[in-house]
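User: quick one, sequence for these tokens?
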């Protein structure tokens, strides 16, 4: 998603007046021209939310992002699971099922089912590349490519909603902190793998 937030200059209105009328006079702020009200303060977080562990907060944030996008995607008859693979293929078309599984962090059977449904909907085709008859690759159709201009703005909208009231400086800090958290946990998983410990399968036994 594009995380940019438009900047507003607080003194933009006053600067415009000065540019048109020169230096403001002492009586410029008359009863007929009341001062603009100050911006409303940001809403306080829900009680107890700031006391939660970072792991729980990030899970809640990710869940809220997902639900907000699902609401918007549903209006276009697209599920969140479809969105995951469409987004990847918009960036790099023609990937194999195995590569798509890795990028989506999903199992190959789950990926296979999603790609089969997307193919039924006419958004992609699957075919073998010359010299490799065993591995299928997914290629977006024109219809699938055209979805990008309709769906990506929805993700940008969700991003803007989520970051409402967050300053550029706060966003920069948030990016750095989340990147560090991701790196730390990735390194922890590598160390665990080296010790023979792996993430167990999520399927029910």
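Assistant:
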């Amino acid at each position: 998603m594009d995380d940019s937030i438009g900047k507003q200059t607080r003194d933009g209105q006053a600067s415009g007046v000065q540019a048109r009328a020169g230096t403001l006079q002492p009586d410029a702020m008359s009863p007929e021209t009341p001062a603009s009200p100050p911006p409303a303060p940001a809403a306080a977080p829900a009680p107890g939310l700031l006391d939660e562990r970072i792991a729980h907060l990030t899970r809640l944030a990710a869940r809220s992002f997902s639900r907000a996008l699902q609401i918007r995607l549903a209006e276009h008859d697209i599920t969140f699971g479809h969105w995951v693979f469409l987004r990847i293929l918009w960036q790099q078309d023609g990937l194999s099922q195995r590569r798509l599984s890795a990028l989506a962090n999903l199992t190959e059977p789950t990926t296979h089912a999603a790609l089969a449904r997307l193919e039924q909907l006419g958004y992609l085709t699957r075919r073998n590349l010359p010299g490799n008859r065993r591995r299928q690759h997914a290629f977006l159709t024109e219809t699938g490519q055209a979805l990008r201009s309709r769906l990506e703005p929805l993700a940008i909208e969700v991003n803007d909603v989520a970051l409402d009231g967050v300053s550029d400086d706060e966003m920069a800090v948030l990016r750095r902190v989340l990147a560090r958290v991701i790196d730390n946990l990735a390194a922890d998983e590598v160390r665990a793998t080296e010790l023979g410990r792996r993430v167990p399968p999520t399927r029910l036994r």
